[in-house]
Amino acid sequence: VQLVESGGGLVQPGGSLRLSCRVSGLSFSRYTMSWFRQAPAKERELVATHRRGGTTDYADSVKGRFTISRDNDKNTVYLQMNALELEDTAVYYCRADFVRTYWGQGTQVTVSA
Fold first, then answer.
1. How far apart are CA 72 and CA 109, in angstroms?
2. How far apart are CA 78 and CA 43, in angstroms?
3. HSE (CB half, 13 Å, CA atoms) of 36?
4. What does the DSSP 8-state code read for residue 60?
5. Phi/psi at 86 (nearest 5 deg)?
6. Are 96 and 35 in contact, with CB atoms under 8 Å apart?
7. Strand pairing partners for 27?
8. Percentage of the chain lying above the pLDDT 90 cut
9. String of b and e for 21-32 (b: at least 16 CB within 10 Å)?
10. What pLDDT is recorded for position 53?
11. For residue range 51-83, what is the model confidence (pLDDT) as tens digits?
12. Exposed, middle or buried by CB within 10 Å (0-12, 13-18, 19+), for 88?
């Protein structure tokens, strides 16, 4: 099983990024997919979840700014991040949950002026 994130980078406050997580080695459509993030010296936190039934949840801190989506044909989950803030700086990880849990290796997002 592999989860490979991409799309991170350096962006100014107010900017946008789209993260992708391509999954292989499992039945992607069966899995709940989530994005987490971990900032320096902080615990990893849940950012957004996209359940296999289609419902989504977001952390209060990103509601209205981030959108999680998935393409089951491409085995990929996305995180569209708009109106980025300095506090969004973190390593972003995708996670797949069903019978077992799998993590990606993470992609760095840095919001800086």
1. 25
2. 22
3. 17
4. T
5. -55, -35
6. no
7. none
8. 97
9. bbbeebebeebb
10. 87
11. 988 999 999 999 999 999 999 999 999 999 999
12. buried
3 state DSSP class of 56? strand
Residue with tokens 């849940």: 46
Q: Which residues contact 77 (CB under 8 A, 6 or more apart)?
A: 20, 21, 23, 33, 35, 50, 68, 69, 70, 71, 94
User: Taking the alpha carbons of 26, 28, 31, 35 in that order, is the dihedral positive or negative?
Assistant: positive
Q: CB-based burial of residue 84 (10 Å sphere; 0-12 exposed, 13-18 middle, 19+ buried)?
A: buried
CA atoms within 13 A on the CB side of 91: 12
